[in-house]
Design a protein that fits this description.
40% of the residues lie in helices and 16% in strands. The chain is α/β, with parallel strands linked by helices. The protein has two domains: 182 residues, Rossmann fold, CATH 3.40.50.720; 100 residues, UDP-galactose 4-epimerase, domain 1 (Alpha-Beta Complex), CATH 3.90.25. Helix 4 packs parallel to helix 5, helix 9 packs across helix 13 and helix 10 packs across helix 11. About 4% of the residues have low confidence. Pfam families: NmrA. This is NmrA-like domain-containing protein.
Length: 315
């Protein structure tokens, strides 16, 4: 008698977020073998959302589970949600919204390992090296476990998202209502990356037969300053958009007006100053090499979502 083949499942933490939702969409659209578990704090309220429609239509591919980093009682929910004959083979990890979460994240890695999970894919950031602050500690832990042969792993280090201009309130509101962009980056360049491309790299890292066991610096195809972004938006929207270069203190004050905690605003202004000094002035071919498709350019993204910025505003 042959041994039954277990169906693999993938857990996507933050599965309704900017990158996570795209990973779920790509997995459920293109991968017919894996069951996808979409973990979020709002999973129990999905019935009134478009996610509920997807859940109904693709019940055999996608299941929503309640997961809260701050409530360890919910950590077992993804494992309880697995149907018979299904094994959780990989987890996509995105950090909770706090500045001191590395211990919590490493504890969850061990929790999942004890329940048979073999592969972990972490979303970090281009500005965070292994062993550094925040996700850097988790990056280093996964690498250490991998070197000991205890896990398969990958760390995605994407640069700044193109979607920020359409989805972050501070950018969206200023473009739509003032025809302005604010930063403290000066003329510093950034290889802005599209969240769809980040998700595509993640899908390969989660599903490829051979374990990645590496980090991916996920960058867009062109170096653009905030001034360059303003010029592209001006062309796309048919009105003049300008970049207002702030001091670090002015940026922190602005971000705090939008509800950002003070400690986060300090971190964000420091990152802007780092960009001003050239920290993000680099490109690579990671997206093309991993996915086989060229990364999306900012102008194409802006054209696809230009309605969100409206037609008004002051020149």
């Amino acid at each position: 008698m042959s041994t039954p083949i277990s169906r693999p499942a993938i857990l996507v933490l933050g599965g309704t977020g900017k990158v996570g939702s795209r990973i779920v969409r790509q997995l459920s659209s293109y991968d017919t073998n894996h069951l996808v578990l979409v973990a979020s704090r709002n999973a129990n309220n999905a019935s009134s959302s478009s996610q509920s429609q997807q859940q109904s239509e693709d019940a055999d591919k996608v299941r929503h589970v309640h997961f809260d980093w701050d409530n360890t009682d919910t950590w077992s929910n993804p494992f309880s949600a697995l149907p018979a004959g299904t094994t959780l083979s990989a987890v996509y990890i995105i950090a909770p919204g706090s500045l001191n979460a590395e211990t919590l994240m490493n504890t969850f890695v061990d929790f999942a390992r004890e329940r048979g999970v073999r592969r972990f894919v972490l979303q970090s950031a281009s500005c965070i090296e292994a062993g550094g602050v925040l996700m850097g500690k988790v990056h280093a832990y996964l690498r250490e476990l991998g070197q000991r042969g205890q896990v398969e792993w990958a760390v995605l280090r994407p640069t700044w998202f193109q979607q920020n201009f359409a989805e972050q309130e501070n950018h969206l509101k200023s473009i739509r209502e003032e025809s302005k962009l604010y930063s403290a980056t000066g003329d510093g360049k950034i290889p802005w990356v599209n969240a769809d491309d980040i998700a595509a790299v993640a899908v390969r890292a989660l599903t490829d037969r051979d374990p990645p066991n590496t980090e991916y610096l996920v960058l867009g195809p062109e170096l653009l300053s905030y001034g360059d972004i303003a010029s592209i938006l001006s062309e796309v929207l048919g009105r003049r958009i300008v970049h207002v270069d702030l001091t670090a203190a002015e940026l922190e004050e602005r971000l705090q007006r939008f509800g950002m905690p003070e400690d986060y605003s300090h971190m964000m202004s420091a990152l802007d100053i780092s960009i001003k000094n050239g920290s993000e002035n680099r490109t690579n071919d990671v997206v093309l090499a991993v996915t086989g498709s060229a990364p999306k350019k900012f102008k194409d993204f802006a054209e696809s979502v230009k309605e969100v910025w409206g037609t008004g505003g002051r020149a």
